[in-house]
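Weekly modeling sync, notes
Attendees: AB, CL, MP (scribe)

Item 1: holo prediction request
CL wants a bound-state model with fe (ii) ion before deciding which constructs to order. AB pointed out that an apo prediction alone won't tell us much about the pocket. Agreed to run with the ligand included and paste results into these notes for async review.

Input as submitted:
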Amino acid sequence: AAVAGCSDDGSSAAASSSPPGLVPFHGARQAGIITDAQDRLAFAAFDVSPGVDRAALRDLLVGWTAAAARMAAGQAVADDEAAPQSPPRDTGEAIGLTAGNLTITFGVGPSLFDDRFGLAARRPAALTEIPAMPRDNLDPQRSHGDLCIQACADDPQVAFHAVRNLRRLAQGTAVLRWFQLGFGRTSTTSDSQDTPRNLMGFKDGTNNIKREDTASLDRFVWVGEGGDQSWMRGGTYAVTRRIRMLLEAWDRDYLLDQENVFGRTKVSGAPLGAAEEFDTVPLTARGKDGELVIGEDAHIRLAAPATNNGVTLLRRGYSYTDGVSQETGQLDAGLFFIAFQRDPRTGFIPVQRRLALSDALNEYIQHTSSAVFAIPPGVRDGRDFWASGLFAT
Ligand SMILES: C=CC1=C(C)c2cc3[nH]c(cc4nc(cc5[nH]c(cc1n2)c(C)c5CCC(=O)O)C(CCC(=O)O)=C4C)c(C)c3C=C
Ligand SMILES: [Fe+2]
């Protein structure tokens, strides 16, 4: 199999010299953050098992990193032909498939910094649990976690294979806490990508930060020199929210109201009061009746940087469906929201607090899970491993 090249940020297979379908694994930043959003997601949170010590945790991360580098390069976790009397070390379902732009992104949750591993002094101030928000209906078993793996690929089997094999390697060291599949990107992370639609039928990702906008990435996404923990410099923080859409109710709502909920036109994606998708959002425009064209409670008003002290987030979420809710008989489907930011205390938390209080979208959604993870900088080369800086003496 081909070997992935190196890039500074793992941003785009197309933008680097790596072969088509391969996103470089090694680099200054982890891939899967500003990488062109792939079509599929497999996201897993793990808890480290009772009794596991710091050395065993470190060994897990060394083994995980080596396996992830191989899978991102389109290789099996191990060559199994050498040991026919042992269980295969690669589960096999990706044999013959291309890497499909697979990226595997690793993070650590706040709970890793309790008294189990002697890491308390290394917890960044920015890595705090997301406080309870109005209207939250969170399932604790689908929330939080010591470690996370985000696998994104254009082939669902490739993304699933990556998480499954890392889980297998964690046997005896860490257990799966929750697992979420996503089937359609709901964001755009580069100017070269078309804006996709979410399950409510609206273009999603229009005003996202794009990888070409390096100034905004440095300002809002990457942890810089000012971070309190040197091991996190060049990293970022991920907030995940499983947001169920009440699609049966949404599908009964009339078009004009749907458009007022977001503040955008459904088909074109243009802001209300503007003509084209990427036109400036006219937040102060008023109609002939003197009313704001984009209402006080419209989602894009309440989420806009202009109404959030200039702050914004890099969104990289996916649509999900988990069948039918046994409680209501209605679709369990929505948005698995993922946002990267340099500090959730100034990023997700204040923005979500505003949305939770007065967003018109609230009538049609429910947040059912929440997690936050520190996403360390990239793995430099074959001798380095995920979060190595955390263990440096
Ligand atoms: C806390 C942050 C956000 C949550 C949670 C959130 C949920 C959510 N969003 C949509 C659909 C759309 N969001 C759009 C824009 C948008 N959303 C956020 C933040 C959160 N969204 C931001 C920062 C922005 C950009 C605002 C701006 O600068 O204009 C849009 C419009 C298109 C776009 O710009 O992407 C849509 C559509 C859903 C369905 C949802 C929860 C289910
Ligand atoms: Fe949004």
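Recorded for review: The first strand starts at residue 40 and ends at 48.
Action items: CL to compare against the apo run; MP to circulate these notes.
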